[in-house]
Amino acid sequence: MHPVEIKKGIYNVGVVDWNIRDFHGYSTYKGTTYNAYLALDEKKALFDTVKKPFWSQLLHNIRKLVDPRSIDYLIVNHVEMDHSGSIPEVIEAIQPEKIFCSAMGKKALDAHFGSDRWPLEVVKSGQQISLGSRTVTFLETRMLHWPDSMFSYIPEEKLLISSDAFGQHWATSETFDDEVALPELLRHAAKYYANILLPYSPLIQKLLGTVSELGLEIDTIAPDHGIIWRSRPQAILEAYDIWSRQEARRKALIIYDTMWQSTEKMAHAVASGLAEEGVSFKMMSLKHNHRSDVMTEVLDSRALIFGSPTLNNGMLPTMADMLCYLKGLKPANKIAAAFGSYGWSGEAVKLITQQLEEMKMDLLEPGVRVQYVPDHDALAQCVELGRKVGRAVKETT
Ligand code: FEO
Predict the structure, then answer these.
(1) Is residue 12 pLDDT above 80, yes or no?
(2) pLDDT of residue 201
(3) For ligand 1, atom 3: residue with the closest CA
(4) Which residues does the annotation mark as catalytic?
(5) What is the pLDDT of residue 280?
């Protein structure tokens, strides 16, 4: 990737990772990018770095613009290794006069790299530094999504360098939102939100309020992953407002796996009940859908209905994986129900139900359990479960 000028004298010098397919459990079928920004002014500042295997590409991009040794400041908005992995090599190459980070960023840099020898300067929210004709204002965004996270705002350019927030895991040759299709861009942004930022939704609501109270003028949002929002920054701000309020649509999601198709037959019967109530639904078999794609659909679903047969006194491993992942991402405002077939012991529905209770979902009981193969009456119970969920969805959306 070549450096791309995003504002006069400010460049994206980051890299594209076309081949990554797993990002700590999140399926990145379309790769990702690690964006890093270089502002050329009386003082030259580099905002973040890239994942370690890409450090030479980052330096190559910088060299196309300036001698790395002429860079004065390194600004570390986030210490997760996809942005900080190259820091030792970059510091060696540029020998910065100062490295700016948050207090928690200093702690994280010390823990990751033993940074005693580096010229770290801790900054707080609202603190400004001058680059010459431009200033950088720091805005700490603790737990969005690490304790160290912060934004850098350049008011003269109306530019928000937003670290992980507003990003997408999407490798492209394009840089800006007006160069790609907005619906596809928002789909990638929704998947990213559902799989990374969802647990921090209350903090995002607060942050959006703070940005509004501060009256920050923003015409470009430059995240550390994916496409830069220069034409429609409002589109992603509005989407984050909706997602962080965890507003659901009139939609239910049937998440299931099956051994010998009994639970699958039950899933189809539950779907019939939802259809009879006129509620939109999706069926997601865990054999055919990655957990992170299921999460994208969870984001705007009002009801989640889980189906698993019993295996060895438990649920199928795919369902256990899904529930573990879901629990960590803390979805709120969900109606839930469970169903499943069994041979002789039949614990799966009870175990799923326990987990849904722990996640504080609004549980519709009882779930439906069927021994071996569902007959007409058993399928009628599943249809009724679907109707019951459908009615609850309609009453609450
Ligand atoms: Fe893209 Fe939290 O790292």
Answers:
(1) yes
(2) 97
(3) 80
(4) 24, 78, 80, 82, 145, 164, 192, 225
(5) 98
